[in-house]
Every structure is written in structure tokens, then in C-alpha cells.
Amino acid sequence: MADAVAVSEPDKTGAAQIEALAVEKPERGVIAAALALLAAGFGTAEPKFEIAHLTDQDWASVSDAMLAPIRVGRFFIHDSARRTDVPSGTIGLRIEFGGAFGTGRHESTQGCLHALASLARSKRVQSVLDFGCGNGILALAALKLWRARAVACDVDPESVRVARRTFARNGVAARARAGWADHPGRRFVRRSAPYDLIAANILARPLKTMARGLKTVLAPGGRIILSGVLREEGALVERHYRSLGLRRSGLCDIGVWRTIVMERPGRRPSSSLVPYRGRP
User: Fold this and answer.
1) In a domain, 99, yes or no
2) Is the dihedral of CA 197, 201, 204, 207 positive or negative?
């Protein structure tokens, strides 16, 4: 039926897209029957589909556009596989596009990057946790803003491998560790706690489930950046963390996505460390 098939990575809502290319126009009824049978087997609703004529395009240009560098606030995000000049006055982040979540194009990632840059204007940070790190972009951004140490973790082993490559290619591997963890209570996370700053760009439900665990590894006076949250879910997520004694200190809405910065009251012993403002 199809001559080529491509499946996208699931987005933050868990939805994925399947694209199939056929030389001859397929029969709609055949596709509908196949999808109905598949959906019944998984006990889910039948997915919607469209059949469209694919016009000729310059696919090399389309690919280049997808891999083009992007600027998000102070950060200039570019493909680690391509030689790219970082504009003066920006912080370069060399990212492996396609290996794991975190290209900088998703609004939840952008919200986290804006939150990090905002915190760097006033907050001192020694230790960072990037929980659900993907390719490690948020830990990397923090390491470029502060002379800190970072722990990055993910449930996907491939994301962990990509994050390690990210740190090595950006010259921060000596200050960063990446490993597998599915909960803040895992030894890999706990042994470097408490953290002055936690970034958790995942989904609303796991953010609520892991709230107590994340608070446990957050230092007094520390901040936690919560993202991967739809605007309509924001109040519920925030209320959950408020019930644990945290208070909101920042908010960023981009598109339909909300990024929330929560603070744990208290003070950690002062440090001589200052935000890193040098060239990347």
C-alpha cells in the first residue's frame, strides 16, 4: 500500500504522526478498514487520516530549514554536526538535532530557556538537575550561564547517550553527568542533592506525581522550573506545588504552553559563585 513510511517522535501530549508515501493513489476504504482493525486491537479510537497529492518540492531546502539555527532569547541553538558561527552577544548551544527531545523549537523548551536566562540575572547557582533531560539542552544552558555542576537524567537510554555527547561537544563534560532515572528518589539523582536549580520539562501528570520527590532534592531557597504544561493545566500544577510549601516566582506563556518557576522558601549558605557571563 505504501512505498515509504515515516513515524514522528511523540509530542508532549503523547501524540505521534505517521506519514506514508505511495506512488499510486491509495484506496480510502482500504486504509479506513486497516486503521479500524488496528484501533480495535489496541482498544482506542480510530485515528483520523488524510490523503493528499504531494507536489514537487526542493526537499534539500526543506531539510536545511528544519536544521537551521534558531535564536531563543540569549541562546543561539545550532546543529552540532554543522560548522556554525555563533553571533556575538549570544550563548551558543551545540545540539544534536533529531537524537532526542530538545531542539529549541518547542515552546516548552523555549519557556525554560527564557526562565533560565531570567534567573541568571540575580540568582547564584552551584548545582543543577535537568530532570527528563532529552538531549541535555537545559542542563547545557545552565552550565553556560553559571559556573555550576549539573546532573541530567532521563528514562530513555538513547536520550542519556545523546546528552553525554551534547556535554562533550560543548566542552562542559567535566561539570556534567548524565544517567538513567525515572524518579527523583533514584540514587543517581539523590547522591548529588540538594540542587539549587531544577528544570523539569516533562508533562503535567508526572510533574504532579513527582512533586514531593522533586521538592526533597531541591535546596532551601532553590528554584524549580516546571514545563511541558498546557496553559489550562498550569493552575492545577502550581496548586499542587503550593500545597507542598513552594511559592511561584515566575511565569512564562508561549503559545499554548506554560512554564512555571516555583521557589522553596529558606536560605542555603551563601557562596562566592557568581553567574557565568563569559563567552560560550
Assistant:
1) no
2) negative
